[in-house]
């Protein structure tokens, strides 16, 4: 009698592991969240359109002015950077997407049921990071590819130096640009986790990725030189250049600096996320 009652009780409860969130469940949940956010579609389509348009404008402007440049300026002309300059906005867009992955949950207070369903906080944040990279990396590569094709076509039509897709430096710029933009997304995720506010995250992204870069040359003496060489977004941006500036880091080293910065910030984000209340 007792064994029969126990058997019926266990059958009603289901398997012992039912209800336990696995890593796959966490990944699937985060994929649904990022796929259904309206901002995801806006960011992807808007970034593609802007970068393609900017590549066409830059290619047309630079191509028409090339013949009037001095020999020294012609030697320093960089067709790769000219066509991929749209990364300056794309890094903000994907950084904002990364921030929204976490700040939107804090804003709507859905972070509470998320952590109730998956108490393992490291797993939650790691799942968000993995899914974000799964979106940002292909989008970043596509943005770089479209910008490259449009920009090089415009440069070619203007009779200026241009690159073919088969050129090694072109492939490095396209895929390296995609990696850089994925790192920008993780940078935004880390900032959003630490700050929790969408507005503050966007403001910080603009300051770190655009404002410092714009004012670096105006900084006094050695400080300006150091910032221009080692500031992570500036150093990482060297991955889209074909002409090496001897005063700056090489493309691979610059991307390594950006990756190291993101790793440190993500580590801090994991520590904060584990210790702070929802």
Structural overview:
By secondary structure, this protein is mostly helical. 78% of the residues lie in helices and 0% in strands. It has helices spanning 2-13, 23-36, 38-66, 71-75, 79-83, 87-108, 111-117, 121-157, 168-195, 198-215, 221-230, 232-236, 251-275. Helix 6 runs antiparallel to helix 8, helix 6 packs parallel to helix 9 and helix 6 runs antiparallel to helix 10 (198-215). It is elongated and about 65 Å long. Mean pLDDT is 89; it is low at 1-18.
Q: Provide the structure class.
A: mainly alpha
**Order of H and E elements:** HHHHHHHHHHHHH
How much helix, percentage-wise, in residues? over 70%
Topology, number of strands:
0
Average pLDDT across residues? 89
Radius of gyration: 23 Å
- N-C termini distance: 47 Å
Q: How many helices?
A: 13
Low-confidence stretches: 1-18
Main sheet makeup? none
Global geometry: elongated
Estimate what percentage of residues fall within beta strands: under 5%
Features:
about 280 residues, mainly alpha, disordered N terminus
Task: Provide the fold topology.
Blueprint: H1 2-13, H2 23-36, H3 38-66, H4 71-75, H5 79-83, H6 87-108, H7 111-117, H8 121-157, H9 168-195, H10 198-215, H11 221-230, H12 232-236, H13 251-275
Helix pairs in contact: 2-8, 3-6, 3-8, 6-8, 6-9, 6-10, 8-9, 9-10, 9-13
Gist?
This protein is 78% helix and 0% strand. With 278 residues, the chain is an all-alpha fold.
